[in-house]
Amino acid sequence: MELTGTFISSLGELKEALKNTDKLVIVYFYTEWSPPCRKIRFEFMQAEQRYPENIYLAANMDSAKSMARKLGVTLDNIPAIVVFKNGKQIYTATSITAAEFNKTDYVEEVEAVPPDSAKP
């Protein structure tokens, strides 16, 4: 199944997506060639349908390494999800499996994070 959605590859594109929104922004870091990334792709697209009130972005590590590195994501820890609220990085899950992704209601977890604990 081919990944669908909005794709980003730079910090500028991410900053633009984060600008002026109070929605959760979930960025999925992946590669086309990674078996674990291919396995979690479906779960990411399902979450996009289950939680339409959020913004979902996908970043291919082959073209987004610099942005990923600044957010603490590397080729060694993908697939990864980085969540933002009000322009701040507030949750990161790395090296996750499809089972872990489905087990974790990251949207609920993120909403429980106190605002002062978010990274700028």
UniProtKB/TrEMBL annotation:
Residues 1-112 form the Thioredoxin domain. It holds the Pfam family Thioredoxin. InterPro entries: Thioredoxin-like_sf (IPR036249), Thioredoxin_domain (IPR013766), Thioredoxin_H-type-like (IPR050620). PANTHER family: THIOREDOXIN, THIOREDOXIN-1-RELATED. This is Uncharacterized protein LOC129922179. The gene is LOC129922179.
